[in-house]
Design brief:
About 70% of the residues lie in helices and about 10% in strands. It is α+β, with helices and mostly antiparallel strands.
Length: about 425
């Protein structure tokens, strides 16, 4: 009985502890907030979980399976027949002395090293497939970075809208006090209160843009890989870049996977040409037969080969030679496109850099100071309401334009990274 009482106390104590943990743990989870990911983490997450890139990687495995097929030798053929069988004489003597039985095996001997050429061609296709998948990963990284910058822009715009709303709400409150005290007209108070609607609308619009940007980014990261309430982490600010376009073009020629794919395409085309020439060689079929007839056992050897009088695979050999020229031209076009991409991205970055520098050179401070002076003067009756609202609109427009210019600069930087083919620029 004493043991049972102790057991109840222990169970009761454990139940209390579990209830306490159930209450405390959710509270701790709420204080931690949503998971935040950096740009580098977002790119790695997308490379690991994006369904389109995972599907693209299976093409490498499919190509490797093709290598197995290409390396297979022909199967031998088993032959057999029975002749001169009589339903009325199915006995041992008749079958042994009057019937004929043949059993043979044949094999196709490939000439021209066809199997080796098939395997080489399949391996070259696999190598090109790897580079094409890597190029898909390059595009995916750029798309993730673009959406990431879009989320940062949305959050910065939302922060500005909320800050402006709080500031203008104070102005509305002061205007209400001034109106009630008889220091300003009801018309001025209603006009400034009506202007509050624009600030509240800006906040709601910014919330919508942020939610949609996070949702679009989540799709690229792999919908199931992040929680619904995730967020991004990182500084939305100017990042100066040094380096000249020639160095970046050289780095692109060394690192772009589509350039490697172009070079490997030429190699694969040459492998196909060698394979088609090997296919033009006629194969030999050898056969060994064992025959039992009339009580006599014999063996026979057979061989056959097609005479290459008309079909020497001329058409496919010629087509493969043109395919080499096609691949070489495509490689040159890809090479020129890479250099063009770097040049265009570099010039776009320089232009956006100059725009951001203009804002940072003093225009942001001018807009802030103009708004502060107009607000100070309006609150003391030294400026009209229209002048104050105009200064407020100019300040908001300047701040929004700067954030959009900064986002354009960061996107141009990501375009340059994509054009070069690496995240770390020289």
């Amino acid at each position: 009985m004493r043991v049972k009482a102790l057991s109840r106390k222990t169970c009761l104590h454990g139940l209390v502890v579990l209830i306490g943990l159930a209450v405390v743990l959710p509270a701790e989870a709420q204080t931690q907030g949503p998971v935040k990911i950096t740009l580098d983490e977002a790119i790695q997450m997308a490379l690991q979980h994006n369904h389109n890139i995972l599907a693209a990687r299976t093409t490498i495995q499919q190509s490797q399976a093709g290598e197995i097929t290409a390396n297979l030798r022909p199967d031998p053929t088993l032959l057999g027949d029975a002749e001169y069988l009589s339903p009325t004489h199915l006995n041992t003597d008749y079958l042994s002395n009057s019937s004929e039985f043949d059993l043979g095996i044949s094999y196709l001997f490939e000439r021209g090293r066809k199997r080796q050429h098939r395997l080489l061609a399949a391996k070259d296709i696999t190598a090109q497939t790897r580079s094409l998948v890597a190029d898909n990963e390059r595009s995916l990284s750029f798309n993730v970075a673009s959406l990431f910058v879009g989320v940062q822009l949305a959050e910065s715009t939302l922060e500005l809208a909320e800050k402006d709303l709080r500031s203008f709400q104070q102005t509305v409150d002061l205007s209400e006090l001034s109106y009630k005290a008889g220091a300003s007209s009801e018309d001025d108070y209603l006009k400034i209160k009506l202007q509050l609607l624009q600030f509240e609308t800006d906040v709601q619009q910014a919330l919508l843009v942020k939610a949609q940007a996070l949702s679009d980014l989540r799709q690229l990261l792999g919908y199931e890989s992040v929680s619904e309430d995730y967020d991004v982490a990182g500084v939305f600010d100017y990042q100066p870049l040094k380096g000249n376009v020639e160095d970046m073009q050289m780095k692109a020629l060394q690192n772009r996977p589509d350039l490697r794919a172009g070079q490997q395409g030429v190699t694969a085309a040459k492998s196909q040409y060698g394979l088609q020439k090997a296919i033009g060689k006629r194969d030999v079929t050898g056969q060994v037969n064992y025959t039992h007839t009339g009580g006599v056992n014999t063996a026979s050897l057979f061989g056959s080969i097609q005479l290459p009088i008309f079909d020497r695979n001329q058409g496919e050999i010629l087509r493969a030679s043109y395919a080499i020229t096609q691949a070489e031209e495509q490689e040159k076009a890809t090479n020129g496109q890479a250099l063009t991409d770097v040049r265009d991205a570099y010039e776009g970055l320089r232009t956006n850099d100059r725009v951001v520098t203009l804002f940072r050179s003093g225009y942001l401070d001018v807009a802030q100071k103009d708004r502060d002076i107009s607000e100070y003067a309006y609150k003391r009756g030294a400026a009209s309401l229209l002048n104050f609202l105009d200064a407020e609109r100019s300040y908001r427009a300047t701040q929004l334009a700067y954030r959009q210019a900064l986002a354009s600069y960061l996107l141009a930087l990501e375009q340059l990274r994509e054009a070069v083919g690496v995240r770390n620029l020289p």
